[in-house]
Design goal:
By secondary structure, the protein is mostly helical. The protein has 16 helices and no strands.
């Protein structure tokens, strides 16, 4: 069995010490990829992962371009669902060099892990080298409910030291709450002592839904009882409405002034 199943870190690739099967597997993968036989590529890579995750991942990182690496996602997702929980982080860590692939395969296993051990997942986020990857994954995990839902998720995010990671979790969990239980979420953020920290979630919510009904988004923005946050929301809703339907926005403005 490979070292990953024992929860240790990936060994460095060493061509001089590599067993023959490594070169055999690499050659077969190269041939399948060259033939654009992606089904065979996934099957071969899955077999290699089952045999030796470390060697397979090393091959991927050293021989596959970033834009092509996502083709290997199904194989990696499959092995992640089979290995021990403590081995998951060891397998995921080197994949961060391939952001699209990493984000594709990391969200579900890390969401599952966070429900029992959020601190270890948060530490994993902190250890990622690229800030954009940190924030994108934090948003994905927040939206997936990795750190809870609603008020409890927001309170958990606020319990962490202020950082781009905790802010991304706060924003995504708030945005999800606004989508799924708008009245409760609106009441909570309106009554918050520092409501402005929800400004990004509010503006993202407006951007996502204004095209469907800009008037309803404006009504919602005006319903926020916190004056500062409401003004941020009204400005954003107005701008989106103006972009989408300038005539409708102008008519609404004229009617509002007449009132």
């Amino acid at each position: 069995s490979s070292s990953l199943r024992e929860g240790t870190s990936l060994p460095a690739a060493d061509a001089n010490d590599a067993p023959l099967y490594v070169f055999k597997n690499a050659s077969q993968l190269d041939e399948a990829w060259a033939a654009k036989d992606y089904e065979a590529t996934q099957e071969l890579f899955s077999d290699w992962l089952a045999q030796d995750e470390a060697a397979a991942i090393n091959y991927l990182m050293e021989n596959v371009e970033a834009k092509d690496a996502v083709h290997y996602a199904p194989s990696i997702k499959s092995i992640l669902s089979e290995i021990e929980p403590d081995a998951v982080l060891a397998l995921l860590t080197p994949l961060q060099e391939r952001r699209e692939l990493y984000l594709n395969v990391a969200t579900k296993p890390l969401t599952d892990r966070a429900k029992n051990d959020p601190e270890s997942v948060y530490s994993h986020l902190e250890e990622l080298k690229d800030g954009l990857t940190q924030r994108e994954l934090a948003r994905k995990l927040g939206s997936a409910g990795a750190f809870g839902r609603g008020q409890s998720a927001i309170e958990w995010a606020e319990s962490q030291e202020e950082s781009p990671i905790s802010h991304a979790i706060l924003t995504s969990t708030t945005e999800y709450w606004l989508q799924t239980n708008g009245s409760a979420a609106t009441e909570f953020i309106s009554q918050s002592e520092n409501a402005e920290r929800f400004a990004e979630a509010v503006t993202r919510h407006i951007n996502n839904y204004a095209r469907r009904n800009p008037k309803s988004m404006m009504d919602w923005a005006q319903s926020i009882s916190n004056e500062n946050l409401s003004q941020i929301a009204v400005d954003q809703a107005g701008q989106r409405w103006l972009d989408i339907d300038p005539d409708g926005f102008e008519k609404w403005q004229n009617e509002s002034f007449e009132e």
